[in-house]
Amino acid sequence: MAINLKDIPVSVLDLAGIVQGDRSAGDAFKRSLAFAQHAEQLGYKRYWFAEHHNMESVASSATSVLIGHIAQGTSSIRVGSGGIMLPNHAPLIIAEQFGTLESLYPGRIDLGLGRAPGTDQATAYALRRNLNGDVDSFPNDVAELLQYFGSPDKQGKVKAIPGVGTHVPVWLLGSSTFSAQLAAKLGLPFAFASHFAPAQLFPALQLYHTNFQPSQYLDKPYAMACVNIIAAETDEEAEFLASSFQQLVLGMVRNNRKPLPPPVADMERRWSLEEHAAVKQMLYYSFVGSLDTLQTELTSFVENTHVNELMVATHIYDFDKKKSSLERTASLFKTEVVEI
């Protein structure tokens, strides 16, 4: 049966991106609030931030603080994490933070959890002080966190206050099959990071759907994939705008991470064949073009993956061009436009 994108909800992943020329991270936060307000008006379902550390192009490291700022500046869109890197934190701390957010903004907060540190090893050590057993304890930490959000009669001696009884929706995020299996076992929604780690998308989704066990949280599997989308009036303009993101990822390949640069017309002169291949592989699930191009390619993606929802990351240097890209993308999907 053919898929209609108008049946698929669409959401936004934001890193509070720092661009060349910013005076401070405050500039990135102002843009994120403006983009979130615009996404809300366009009918996007969620607006998530990802926890990363020690990256000059990313300002969303204090993720829960930023979520509160964006929730305060919007009124209906769900705001959450995509995700909180749980090995960096005690589950009780996250339960208290998100219990606070849910208490302030009822029915609008999502908690997506990842099991990677979201940074390099030295920074991970600075965050956690030791690296022993942190990733391996992820399933137990997730179970502990879920308990903190549960009913008062399900609590132990230690309680998350606020947190108890808030039932904050928890998602498991992954770039491999591990979290897909855990999400299936616990009956939780699952989101795959195909926007930067495309290799195991299909194995992870298959494992999740095959092994899903109904739970108090979900009676059937619910999967989301995150992809990169840059929409413009023409394919040529979109390709030009995409060169900013390509330069950013090239910097990652070279271990030279800098703020998002302006677009350029000569990417072929800026990378070697090997570097081009590496960038292309990382950005395999990037959809760049006009509405006609995106309609065809995204329909095929959803038909092949059977995802229930799509989340989009849009790395564009120019503020107005990014707003325009969000508008064009929203027009393809199921949205609930907010009247102002």
Summarize the helices and strands and which ones pair or pack:
Layout: E1 10-14, H1 25-42, E2 46-49, H2 63-72, E3 78-85, H3 91-104, E4 109-114, H4 121-128, H5 138-149, E5 170-174, H6 178-186, E6 190-192, H7 201-211, E7 223-231, H8 235-253, H9 273-282, E8 286-289, H10 291-305, E9 309-313, H11 319-330
Parallel strand pairs: 1-2, 1-9, 2-3, 3-4, 4-5, 5-6, 6-7, 7-8, 7-9
Helix pairs in contact: 1-11, 3-5, 6-7, 8-9
Q: Distance N terminus to C terminus?
A: 37 Å
Record the strand order, biggest sheet.
1-2-3-4-5-6-7-9
Question: Would you list the SSEs in sequence order as H and E?
Answer: EHEHEHEHHEHEHEHHEHEH
Q: Percentage of helical residues?
A: 40-55%
Q: Please tally the helical runs, counting DSSP H or I stretches of 4 or more residues.
A: 11
What fraction of the residues are assigned to beta strands by DSSP?
Answer: 5-15%
InterPro entries: Bact_Lucif_Oxidored (IPR050766), CmoO-like (IPR019949), Luciferase-like_dom (IPR011251), Luciferase-like_sf (IPR036661)
Domain Luciferase-like: 19-262
Protein name: Luciferase-like monooxygenase
Family: To bacterial alkanal monooxygenase alpha and beta chains.
Account of the 3D structure:
The protein has 340 residues and is an alpha/beta fold. The chain has a domain at 229-304 and 311-334. 41% of the residues lie in helices and 14% in strands. It is built from 11 helices and 9 strands. It has helices spanning 25-42, 63-72, 91-104, 121-128, 138-149, 178-186, 201-211, 235-253, 273-282, 291-305, 319-330; strands at residues 10-14, 46-49, 78-85, 109-114, 170-174, 190-192, 223-231, 286-289, 309-313. Strands 1-2-3-4-5-6-7-9 form an 8-stranded parallel β-barrel, surrounded by 8 helices. β6, α7 (201-211) and β7 (223-231) form a beta-alpha-beta unit. The longest helix has 19 residues, at 235-253.
